[in-house]
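Example 3.2
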Amino acid sequence: MKKVLVTGPNGFIGSALLKVLSEEGVEVIAVVKDINENITAIESLPNIKIVYCELSEIDKLSKIVTDRDIDTCIHLAWVGSFGDARTAYDLQLKNVKYALNLVDVLPKMNIKRFVGAGTLAERDVLNYHPTDGATPNAVSIYGIAKITANYMTKAECSKLGIEHVWCLLSNTYGVGNTTNNFVNMASRLMLENKRAAFTSGEQTYDFVYVTDTVRGIYHASAFGKANTSYYIGSNQARPLKEYIKIIRDTINPDIKLYLGEIPFNGIPLSKECYDTTKLVNDTGYKPTVTFEDGILNTINWLKLQ
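Structure, written as tokens:
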């Protein structure tokens, strides 16, 4: 993998991925939404060329990017990947169309491999929604859209003779993540001395430090088998309550936890869903950051915000 096109390059995961690609000597064409976007994290990286194109105009990308020696497209851009926007079905469906429009323009640029960024929420949906009597929450619309994007881009890539790789990202956390993901939410609750109420925490979870996540995306993109999906994890999946206790102990071991105060709505994923064996065997991926180290970095950063 010598030259790649990356959408969504200036976000939390995108900017971290570009650092890895730059370190590996990969030339990158970074497709940023518009000139109002913050690109300070990526603009000074070597081997990076920044171009501007809205997702709604992605079908015109071949006229903006004139390079014809790009081997891989890594598609990270997704409008509404956190917060209430995940419940907006019209917005989520637009993202599916944008992904397909991107795939359709790749042959014009001679790009032979498409790598999409999926989510573990896809497995949550497939595990729970088909169950009779299930009452899924609206946030699952995001996971359903990701499943749709995965399967439809795979079919479109097959039609166009493009290799398809899909990365299932787990709960990525770390320095620089400004969302209210679980790690940030739980950490802030305890840092602000608020009531630390959670579910019983018996369900298996996997939190992956951002540098491991992007290293996994790099390995899947460069070395992954065609038409294959890869779960990118930490190899340290464990019951959620154990993660919560580590967060508590890192902040203040005396904080009282109220486990079981919030009901859990869903069917827990099996531990096998968090298995990274395929990614490790096919690509040589190896996560390096323990949750204990990663959460210490994250909490120290959150204290400064």
